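Form 12-C: Joint structure prediction
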Amino acid sequence: MEKLAVLSESPLFEMLSNQELEYVSELCRPRRFTAGQIVFEEGELGDSLYVIVSGEVEVLRRDASAEQRRIALLGPPMFFGEMSLIDKEYRSATVRARTDTELLHLTAENLAAFRKQHRDGFTFVVINIARVLSSRLRESNSKLVEIR
Amino acid sequence: MKTKRLNEVVSLIAQLEFQSWWAEFQKRRAELQEAQKRYEDSLAEASLAEFKAELLQKNAIDTLYRAGECEDTAATLLFEGTELENRSYRAVSDFEEQRFYVSELWYRLGACEKAFEEHREAKPQFNGKKAESELKAAERAHRAAREDYDRETERRNQLWDEVERIWAKSAEVNLLVAEHRVRAKSIRKEAEALFSLAEEQKRRSVDLRAAAEAASARCEGARSALRAALNRAHDEFACATGADFLYFRQKGSSKRIFCVSLIEDHDKYNVELTPLAVYVVDRQRGVAFLEPSVVGEPPSVQEGDRRFEDYFLRGRKGSVISIRPAV
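Section 2 - Result
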């Protein structure tokens, strides 16, 4: 797996310089999941995010009747798990590999090491996370209006 | 441990002297791994042979017990057979006695029959009360003799049946005795073969244990050679040495240490390790948290500023991010 190529495609690392991307690629660890395997569970403590290299993952959340419902399907070069990294809360959803999946794993500690070395690069990572969250909020707002 | 700058560490790694040390270190490490593998293999083989020997011994003992049980059964049956034989002698003797007795009764019955016939034939000539009563007495005697004879014949036949029953049972038991004896002999032979195999396996396990000890000694030798290689690195390159890393103090920092990975690893550390890559660690945490080292200057403040300007003031550089909805 060419980590650098994958990271340069990911919206999480948009606007990062090559040097910053190289540094991040050294901090990321590849993880493999087989179809059906859980990446993390709703309610777990989490302080890391994942970038999808190949395959697909589904984001599942329990409804009021405790039944798991799929709320999103993600593929490369998307990322997930960033919410717990930012708000330090428990995982808000379960993520399960829908197919055999390759991911890049970046922990909060490794992200902090990136910040020490590349402050501007780190700021852009945070901006990119904020962009994704803002985009999701817009989509949710639109859906809310449609429902009403 | 001397202090060094990152570029000094990087150029040290590129030096011929270091590269020759690295080649020797890798060779020693491969030798140790090979020796360890051999030791583990021979230890496993020795343990397996010991286990097999114990198992065979246990099986042999169990089989021997089985042979003993079979012999016991044969002995019990033999005793039963002897008893049956004795009983059959008594039964034959009883039958013989009864046979003589029945013969006597048969003669007696013949006599009574003759007497009765004579009285009956004489009756028309000597008509009278006396003759009548003698005929009746002869008739009663004849009937009684017939009844005795029939009853005792029946008893004789029963005695003969008993004799035959005992003989049949005795033959059956004798056959079983022979079969159990043969089986016991065969099981005993089986047990002896197992004992012999167990002995052979014990001898083999002793040899294998000795081979494992020799492999352990070779392992220790390879470990010493690897330690010597690391000591040489310590002396020649002025670094601290661990099993998987070389450490250099960072010039200008009392807390930061450069460490050179001697291994490739994808799991155990917070980053993927590449052999001879240089990482930065904190002196307290050590390799519990590794940071990649950066050669060259960090991006200038101006460069950073320009990117922020581009993003915030000149319109968005990146694309709008959206998530595929759930299907």
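Section 3 - Comments
Strands of chain A lie at 29-33, 38-40, 48-54, 57-62, 68-74, 79-80, 94-97, 101-107. The longest strand of chain A covers residues 48-54.
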